[in-house]
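Researcher: Here's a chain I'd like modeled. Treat it as a single chain, no partners, no ligands.
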Amino acid sequence: MYQCIDTQKISMKKNYETWPFNFGAIHEQNFKKAKIAIAQIPYDSTSSYGIGQRNGPYAILKASRYVDELLDSHGGKLIGLDPTDVFTLDEIVVSRNSVPEAMAGIEQAIEKEIVSKNKIPLVLGGEHSISYGVVKALKKKHEDISVLQFDAHADLLGEYEGSKFSHACVMRRILDLGVPAVQIGIRNMNTEIEAYLKKNKKQAKNIHFTPEIPPIEKILKGLSKNVYLTFDLDALDPSIMPAVGTAEPGGLYWNETIGAIEKIGKKVNLVGADVVELCPIPGFEAPNFLAAKLVYQIILAILNKK
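Model: Modeled as a single isolated chain. Structure tokens:
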């Protein structure tokens, strides 16, 4: 016996969904009302070992659309955030003529598109060098800004592979701006950096090596009220984050890291943040998903939400 199917009724029923391609697949983005502007900077021109960080922002946005804590995908309704909390901007593409020109472009874009409009920048990289341009833009608004860095590397070289603006020099350039920095997760230094720290004892006190995250009170002593959080994903142990340009064993783990960010976010004013150095591995989505959840947790810390 054959069943008769009414194709007209099937055609009248909506049998599809549309998912916007932004962080969390937010259906009702509103830039004017948004508190945080998510910027994508797919830049990796000074990458020196593993490459592909330019693909990081796309991978994070794609993975974020499946974060259950963030979105009820069937109803298109945000769970962890309000639709007006964040707005995902289009890609910021900077010049590849020279690294200084690229840094100037990042500074201009962050200032014009985000800071001047009183939004908090949350930047998806790209390599770590981009943080310099973002901090320069924010320093014009927050003179007392300091930086909290999660990273396996100190990034304090004076120059690397002929560039003073390499990813390996980004924190040296930020310190040159007169911006203090607390560095967490560090586990790789060379003799040049050791010599630099001997001459800069204040910074030496603000470097905290793995395997432990220091007490929050100790971290806060090196920070001002207004803080920029820069998170190089190689701060995490390669067992949970292998998709980075320069993986280092003996890194941080998820619960302790998120716990520290949450506690620090309650004590300071997070005026911006970035998540950098994701180097996606084709066919391996776990690191991309971790990075997306990290971005979500940083958003909660900025907004002081649970």
